[in-house]
Amino acid sequence: MTKAKYMIMILFASVLLLLIPNISNAAVDVSRNIYANNGSAKYEFTGLTLDKSHEYEFGLTKTSAAEVEKWHLITEYTETTATVDITGGTSEFTDVITAVEKGYITIRDKTDESKKVVVNHHEIDLSISYLNITNYNVINNGKDLDKSNIQVNFWNASNSKAYYQYEKITDENVISKYKEIKAKNGDFNELQSLLKTKAPSSNWTTWGYWNGYGGSGYGYTQRSVSVPDYGLYYMWIYLAGNNIRNLYGYILVDNLQPDIALDRISLPKTQEVELGKTLTLTPTFSPENTTNKIVTWSSSDESVATVDNAGKITPKKIGSTIITVTSQDGNKKASCTVTVIQKANEPSNNQQSGGNNGGTTNGGTNNGSTTSGGSNGGTTNGNDKTVATRELPHTGVGIELITSLFVAIGTGIFYFLKTRKYRGI
């Protein structure tokens, strides 16, 4: 066997060894359950093969190449699942959480003498959701924060500086969902998927008080929370880290007025729209300052015209359809009959404008009828609007042939050289 064959075998074995960790993790899935506002979360790994008579342990690292320095016992596991608990306050977890948003979990068999690895450096999400970086999800406007400080785990005055600003929430869907959760005394974390995840880039104000050393920080943005106007607000929080990553999040500030009920919705009785154009209907609410202005739209005949969530009507063909707007609770409705009409100054289907003398063309098929008033007096073929008076030139054939030849020749040369080079192996 030649040296070249040995080299190929060694190279193949090296690639295989590199792929083994990824292959072993390929069938493993992980889900996260955040259970506290301090970065604490449980990660459930599924698709495993475990022995219930053995004990298993895990380690957390910042990178996929780092060695685990400390192992932690797994107390929740079955034959196919294992739950890893990343608890806030544990120093080696804190070091990773404050450094990166993506960490790596390794799970091994503690009972096995060889410490068999079950999961090798599997990536997990360590980011803290924006609504969970402090001990508050929601606070009321006017709250005295001097008496009950805002608390932030891991980030504190020794490793970061604290900033804040207010932003009014204008998304009616967010406000409506917030009120629904508030009315049933529910979990405001249900809002997270609807809320912003891009923090402002400027206009930050330094906290009135920011302290804490070691495990956590505490303080207040203002002694008494004060938003600019009525409504629901983000109190954006930004912690600029020193030798740790920056942290962004928010607390919702409730300064909403009592709801004003909707009495009536109105629309024009009729409207017209030309084919090729659009029409937007704007409902009138009574009273004008009603709290909930979320509505849905529908068309009785979408083959005539469709309507989107903003009341924009797009005509499809000539005819009429009824456009209906409905309040979010379904109790109030209004309708408008929309008629789609022909474009202004557009000829009908069986006639078209002639040439210089204003003649018309009959819409026959292949009957040799002539067109009056045309500059050339040419013939038309039924309703076909494109008439070729000469043969169209052909292009690109020569280029395609030359390209194909080059590809064929190049492939042949490459294959010849390759087989000649390794003929002696």
Description of the structure:
The chain is 16% helix and 32% strand. The strands form 7 sheets. The protein has a 5-stranded mixed sheet with strand order 9-16-15-11-12, with no helix packed on it. It has a 4-stranded antiparallel sheet with strand order 1-2-6-5, with no helix packed on it. The chain has a 4-stranded antiparallel sheet with strand order 4-3-7-8. Residues 15-24 and 350-398 have low confidence and may be disordered. It has helices spanning 3-25, 91-97, 172-183, 397-421, and strands at 29-34, 41-46, 56-61, 72-73, 76-77, 81-86, 102-109, 117-125, 138-140, 150-153, 160-168, 205-206, 209-211, 216-220, 231-241, 247-255, 264-266, 270-274, 279-280, 284-286, 295-299, 305-307, 312-315, 319-327, 333-341. It is built from 4 helices and 25 strands. It is α+β, with helices and mostly antiparallel strands.
Topology record:
Layout lengths: L2 H23 L3 E6 L6 E6 L9 E6 L10 E2 L2 E2 L3 E6 L4 H7 L4 E8 L7 E9 L12 E3 L9 E4 L6 E9 L3 H12 L21 E2 L2 E3 L4 E5 L10 E11 L5 E9 L8 E3 L3 E5 L4 E2 L3 E3 L8 E5 L5 E3 L4 E4 L3 E9 L5 E9 L55 H25 L4
Parallel strand pairs: 9-16, 18-25
Antiparallel strand pairs: 1-2, 2-6, 3-4, 3-7, 5-6, 7-8, 10-14, 11-12, 11-15, 13-14, 15-16, 17-20, 19-23, 21-24, 22-23, 24-25
